[in-house]
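[#protein-structures] MJ: dropping Aminopeptidase here for a structure pass
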Amino acid sequence: MTDSDRSRKSSNPPDAVEATALRAGFEEPHPRPRRGLGLRRLLPLLGAGLVGGTLALLGGCAQWGYYSQSISGHLSLVRAARPVPEVLAEPGLDPTLRQQLVLSQTLRDYAITELHLPDNSSYRRYADLHRGSAVWNVVATPPLSLQLKTWCYPIMGCAGYRGYFKRDDALAQAAQLKAEGLEPYVYGVPAYSSLGWSNWIGGDPLLNTFIQYPEGQLARMIFHELAHQVAYADDDTAFNESFATAVEQLGVSRWMQARPEALKADEVSRQRQDQVQALLRAGRDRLRTLFQSAVSDDDKRAGKAEIFARMRQDYEALKRDQWNGDDRFDRWFLSLNTPALAIQGSYTDLVPDFLRLFDRQGRDWHRFYAEVKRLARLPKDERRVQLAAGG
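AK: finished. structure tokens for Aminopeptidase:
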């Protein structure tokens, strides 16, 4: 099969629910969430031309191997991408793909002119990876805690997840964490942000892993990932993801105002995602109370099992009583565990604070971004206090 043949048929991943519900809060499994990996701060090393020497200084075969797969994986993704006009010019291009690519460029322009997101080469190119996820993230917690394990890197800072371009590598990392006594979770990610560091080599591309999303979700994906190029705190996953989620919510709400048909379909989708988010938030709160209590570990394990069973029962009730049997989240709930619940919260828990901050800045995008950048430079504890207070 030639490259031209491949581009005519955008692969709609068969494993579309590979726990992608974590990107940007709780994405529907159309093959969301989004989203991020330790690579985000690795690109400055590439830009400086210091890859080999820097990796050698980091020490340890494991670190070398991790950075090597991150660099080669990202570069292979960038090399696979071609300018959207070039793809659109192909005869016999799949009509649905053509429509979605055109829509993506309209959304990209809108992100610049109306949301004042970065005007650069990101999302101006398209790549079909012929797989269901861009990367696979690994997260982990102690069995009786919602505290995510973090991985820290020189220059890059710390993050509560570790990303791999091969699913087998992610599963191997999860197995190692389990052997260490942690509870791991692996989930596929349709997109991630290089924080703008790869714009000099073509930018973050549009991918087959999300290009077929319905209009509202495609807009969320693009707005969310571009927001990561505006502000990023090295040591605060919840701050970064909640900020990007707030931007996507504000941006899509504005985008949809002039599109009543798309808005109607999107509202149903968002309502169901919001209901699931509320269900999971209640579960996290119950678990947090249990884990912090003085009962024995055996009682905590038993209580944890009951809480997860209740969440699944509540989900089944939603499907039966309100959703007419819609089972879009089934596979995600089947694999739900403590680290999955913990990372999902990082996409949503601080969103109300960012929405209030946007209002306090007069709903002015430039002022809002400037304030978020200021907060990102603060120590984490001070950052959280000021964000909660409205900046």
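MJ: nice. Residues 1-391 form one domain.
AK: one more thing. The two ends are 54 Å apart (CA to CA).
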